[in-house]
Here is the input.
Amino acid sequence: MYTTEMSKNPARPAAPSEAPELVAAFEARVANDEFIEPKDWMPEAYRKTLVRQISQHAHSEVVGMLPEGNWISRAPSLRRKAVLLAKVQDEGGHGLYLYSAAETLGTSRDQMIEALHTGKAKYSTIFNYPTLTWADIGAIGWLVDGAAIMNQVPLQRTSYGPYARAMVRVCKEESFHQRQGFEITMKLAAGTPEQKAMAQDALNRWWWPSIMMFGPPDDNSPNTAQSVRWRIKRETNDELRQKFVDVTVPQAEAIGLTVPDPDLKWNEERGHYDYGAIDWDEFWAVVKGEGPVAKERVKARIDAWEKGAWVREAALAHAAKQASRRQKEAANG
Ligand SMILES: [Fe+2]
Ligand SMILES: [Fe+2]
Here is the structure.
């Protein structure tokens, strides 16, 4: 998910230098549910908001490979290993589609990677929590990918064409991720008392961080109104969070696990679950990089980038060699 707006400084509305008729035509197209494409005119604030949101989303996919990649070698069976490996590869693919979508807005891959490595760019707070047991892999698929789907399904209709199209494919894969996580949790919950306790412990630790993934409440989310008007966001943080709670609580009940929230109860009148207060101090601390494993995550990305330098160099050398061969052939032909 990874598209939570985590900046407390909202993008400014139309810059004074932008021609009002261009802004009006743009707003009319968006209001009419047309897709905005890379070469179309767009307000600078729209472009900046999208670059921030899409690159943050891309970073989250790639950083999100770390907590699960960590368990590939320890998955309890060949089947679990194969499934987890495929899932982690999917996340790498999601990162690549999204970096490409952001590049169409005029930012480069190198700029985005550098922003991640220097701590300027954010990624989803959820990946700054450690994966302590195998049950955590179940909880991540069920809850974290489950929350990602809630957030990403409406983004298939987001106003920026390349982002919306990337989301169509991503969503198909996310629903498989959610199912594999739920299946791991369901099996553990139906297993020995120790296995069931592991599943409950994972739910206890991942529940609150998962519902925080939707970002700050609407009354403290400065970019929400602008993003909804521009159809970058189609539903608010609180609306999406409520949907997630409503769908997930019955799933926990169905497999005999308890959601760790004493205030959780069905509200007949609203037709939704009421839930307890979220610890926003914890959320903002994790956003600022104080999550339990935040430093390890960024270090792992930087190490991978540095150790992979030879691959990038080799690919560039190969491409240059091919290009010069083609040139020679063209000259001779
Ligand atoms: Fe993903
Ligand atoms: Fe996923």
Observations:
- The two ends are 52 Å apart (CA to CA).
- DSSP finds 13 helices and two strands in the chain.
